[in-house]
Design brief:
D-Maltodextrin-Binding Protein, domain 2, five-stranded mixed β-sheet, 15 strands, 10 helices, ten-stranded mixed β-sheet, globular, 29% helix, 2 domains, alpha/beta
Length: 293
């Protein structure tokens, strides 16, 4: 049986590497097909529609924060469940056919990557025009036609498309990591973390404090909480929460059951284990080295 996994394409993105790392760990003895999509939303919806069995999508970066497209799309969808989290080291390169950095006038990259390299760009190319793209690998498609433009992507992507690297690394912090979620249609009940989201019935004093107190009273640590607009009206928010605990634990089950009474809509995205940077670094380097073989 072939396992199909959707990801933000085209080939050469960090999401493709995260999908490779996860599939090698999760489906070691099975054949895997990676299916590129033009956007994160399209990749997620492909699994819901049955076009693929899984999706790997970025959810949070250590420099720039949450990937809001992933969170907003998950809230809109009803069926996707987190299978595992993959934390991938991210090391950006400036890629261009220009003779020197000084001749570059325009840089293409995904908005997250532009933000992760903001200080470097301000110091080295303060007057350059920055143009966002759906993915870093997509940005590479522009380079050969114009030597005055550059793109931000990985060293692996540069080798994959046989393009010159003018500077590396250019991210603003050396310990740059992105957390990805592998998502499918079947829930996983065991893991170190559980992610959920909820909206509140009314925006009144104490409305958020009561749901959060539920976790505190049971000794459940929240490793993340973030608000996102519901897109219904100004000042109307929903909340994404990561809990240190799994839904198969009695105290987590009790907290979620009580939480339902304080929320308007509650969505459980599942429990999962986290594949840390130490486990993904070697695999990432192996994928890069394989391009030289």
């Amino acid at each position: 049986m072939t396992i199909s996994i959707a990801y933000l394409g085209p080939p050469g993105t960090y999401t493709e590497v995260a999908a490779m790392v996860w599939s090698a760990q999760a489906f070691e003895l099975e054949q895997v097909t990676l299916c590129p999509y033009a956007s994160i939303s399209q990749a997620l919806r492909a699994t819901v529609a049955g076009q693929t069995q899984y999706t790997v999508a970025p959810v949070e970066n250590s420099i720039e924060g949450s990937v809001t497209t992933t969170l907003d799309t998950l809230w809109q969808l009803e069926t996707l469940q987190i299978q595992q989290a993959i934390v991938l080291p991210i090391s950006h390169a400036l890629i261009s056919c220009a003779q020197s950095i000084e001749t570059i006038q325009t840089i293409y990259a995904h908005p997250q990557s532009l933000a992760q390299c903001q200080i470097w760009l301000e110091n080295h190319l303060p007057s350059v025009q920055l143009i966002p793209t759906n993915s870093n690998a997509e940005a590479l498609q522009h380079l050969e036609a114009n030597p005055k433009i550059g793109a931000i992507a990985s060293q692996r992507a540069a080798r994959l498309y046989n393009l010159p690297i003018l500077a590396h690394p250019i991210n603003d912090h050396p310990d740059n990591c992105t957390r990805f979620w592998a998502l499918g249609l079947h829930p996983v009940k065991e893991g170190s973390h559980t992610s959920l989201a909820f909206s509140l019935p009314a925006n009144v004093p104490g409305a958020l404090a009561k749901p959060l107190q539920i976790f505190a009273e049971r000794g459940l640590n929240l490793s993340k909480i973030e608000s996102r607009p519901t897109k219904k009206s100004l000042g109307d928010y929903l909340f994404f929460v990561d809990i240190e605990g799994s839904v198969d634990q009695p105290k987590t089950q009790a907290a979620i059951e009580e939480l339902q009474s304080y929320t308007e809509t509650l969505k459980i995205f599942g429990s999962y284990k986290i594949l840390p940077p130490a486990a993904t670094k070697t695999a990432t380097e192996n994928y890069s080295d394989s391009l030289h073989a």
